[in-house]
DNA-invertase hin (Novacetimonas maltaceti), 190 residues
Amino acid sequence: MKQRIGYARVSTEDQHLDLQRNALQQAGCYVIYEETASGKNASRLELEQCRKALRDGDTLVVWRLDRLGRSLPDLVQIVAELERSGIGFESLTEKIETNSAAGKLVFHVFAALAEFERSLIRERTHAGLAAARARGRSGGRKPKLGDKQVREIKVLLRDPEIQVADVARRYGVSRTTLYKHVGVVAPRHP
């Protein structure tokens, strides 16, 4: 038997699920998974339980699109996975449902916009890196150790009495960072 299963989420403890719960019940959802979790949080246990409960022919219903996905690309991915499993999707507020041809069209327009957004971000990132290189800058993190510090460390490590771990602590870096920047091949033991 096909089911309409609801998913409701609020971000903080001081928010309430009542509005979402009522809307989902009115939409014919007899089973509703509820949780309090930030949309930024990748780990949403109730959403995972909800997805495990869905079967071919069922429909996942949410009150609003932003209750399901952390971002538009994330939302598109979730709905695509549902569609591959034969599960419909419906958002009550936006009046989007993927069980009809028109609903699928609207959702695929969203998917195209998400891909367009990713492409724009990628293009801006590449343009920014190219502009930085043209100004003589390179991307990435600043080195943990400056040239002067590397020279000092090399001098210190010439002394066989000085341990790599002691030097690393003194400069506030890991031994691995020292090995990388100073060229120490293997740790020395007392």
